[in-house]
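Supplementary Methods S3. Complex input for the zinc ion-bound model.
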Amino acid sequence: MLNELELTGRAATHVVLCDDLGAALHREVILPYLELRDAAWVDGIELQIVSGYRGFDAQLRIWNMKYRGERPIYDECGQVRVHASLDQAQLVAAILCWSALPGASRHHWGTDIDVIDRAAIAENYRYQLLPEEFAPCGVFSRLNSWLTENMARFDFFRPYARYQGGVHREPWHLSYAPISSAALRLSTPELIAITVRDHEVQGKDYLLARMPEIYRRYIENISPLPPKRGQDIGP
Ligand SMILES: [Zn+2]
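Predicted complex, serialized as C-alpha cells:
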C-alpha cells in the first residue's frame, strides 16, 4: 500500500509515467485503465486523460495562488467570487469546493483521473471540465452516460458524482476503487495536518485549527462506491 509520502503527493515512487497516455498513474491502475479505454473505444469514445497523478508541489501552487487571489475563485454554483469580499472561512470554503488541500488531493494517489472524449470535440475545442459539458446537451454527454453504464465493470467510480456539501460535482473525475478506498482510509486527518504544518500552505493556522471539520466535509465526504465487479446491481 501507499506510504505516507506517496499518500500526500510528496513522493512519486508509486506512479509510472505513461507517455502514450500523457499522464502518470499508479502502477496497478494502468491495466484497468487500458481495459476501460479499450471498451470505450469499441463504443466510439476516445477516452483521454487530461489530469492523472499530481504531486504536492503542483497542488500547493494551485492552493496558494487561489488563496492570494491570483487565480479566480468560484462558489458552489460556479459563480466567480470577488477575492477581497471573502473572509477567511468563505475563502477556504470556496477554494475547497473546487480544489483539494495540498496533501489531500486524490490525484496524489495516481488512482484518480480526469477524462474527456477526444472524439466528441473539434481539434480547437478548449475543454473546461464544467458540469455543463457533461450534461445531456453538452459535448461530453455521451461519454457521461457511457461511464455511468460501464465504469463499475472496471472498478472505477465517481467520488464526486453529486454535490453533497463538500467538493463540487465532477462527472469527469474517476477513481480506481480497489486502491483509492484503501488510500482514503490511510489518509488520516493527522497525516494531512502534519503535511500542511510542515509546508508553506497559505491559511495554515486556520486549516490546522479546523482540520477535523475540513476532513469530514471535503475529504471523507465522497459519493458511495459502486457494487463489486460481477455483483448483481439489481433492477
Ligand atoms: Zn480530478
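The first helix runs from residue 4 to 7. The chain is about 35% helix and 10% strand.
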